[in-house]
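User: I would dearly like some help making sense of a protein record. This is the protein in question:
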Amino acid sequence: MLPKEVITPASNVVRIQYTTLENYLRIADQLKIMRDFKDGVPRTAYLGVITCFINGVRIYIAPDWNIWSGYNSNWEASSE
């Protein structure tokens, strides 16, 4: 489940942090954004950050910078 502040943000910009492939896929599914990867890079990502707009809110889905060391080529979403 996404944090409450993500569902009802107080501002027009929100950052959601992910740490694992499963965590990222859960976020992508809840936001209904593309969940596919190419060579371990999420679609439209730049430095691990995916940007989308939902209901007028800019959402940044970003890795935890304390542990992120670059893209992991083993990350691939299973086809559903």
Summary: The chain has one domain: 4-63.
